[in-house]
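[agent] plan:
  1. take the single chain provided in the ticket
  2. run structure prediction with default settings
  3. attach structure tokens to the ticket
  4. add a short note for the reviewer (M.T.)
[agent] executing step 1
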Amino acid sequence: MSAFTLPRSTRPIAVGALFAALTMSAPAFADVVIYNSIPSPLPTNVTSLGYECCEVNEFGNEVGFSGTARQLTDVTVTMSNWAYQSVYPGFGTATGFTVPLTLNLYNAGAGGAVGSLIATDTINAFIQWRPEPDGCSGVGSTTFTGSGGCFNGLAENVTFDFTGVTVPDQVIYGLAFNTYSYGAAPTGVQGPYDSLNFGLTTTSPSVGTNVVPGTLDINAAGPYPVTSATPGTFGPDTNWAPYSPAIEFDATVPEPATFSVLAIGLAGLAAARRRRRS
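[agent] step 2 finished; step 3 output follows
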């Protein structure tokens, strides 16, 4: 008999225990939030940074993650859309328009320098039109039903899929998209993406940390809104307090039940081997 062959009387116990461990533990994974700065509930609109108006190519932040889960599932960002349909009759549908958005994840280098690219995801995000203006508090503003105020934009969340991407404890992220004049490949055509902004928050993250509060990362073509970063290069920029982008990172971890079932299976296998030796 081989050293790894179980007697017939113990095989059903061992095989059954191991089968239970494998089949019952496989789906038992749960998403956890490892960083979150998105206001909850999401307001009608938020303060935001415009890409076309501020000559921005990419914008983001260096963040630190909570807990130990580092295998991402998805990342959600808050956008603020100021575009309404009557200005762009040739774009989208009656409810919104589609725009390619790219989220890049980088390693954080010494002194907050942007390091190597970890992963990137580009999605065709569907963005809702904001309601047509009714001049509730000036030209271009709109009364949003039930919101109790007048707004120039509409906040909404879009989600990127980073399933299976493993990240370190700190990353620098950057959101990039093309507008009429800016981005990796400017469109040269005026469109609703020219009125699409990255949402900002003024509160500290509810989960995780801003590594250097008041310092964000930006690649902008000109001196506004840059204060210390080199124009045309994605890097850290100061004097942004109290603002930071609104974003959430989710990761996956095995649920406690997974470890329990696996332990039971292994215990059964060990017991079977002990019986064989005796």
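[agent] step 4 note for reviewer: Helices lie at 11-25, 256-277.
[agent] ticket updated
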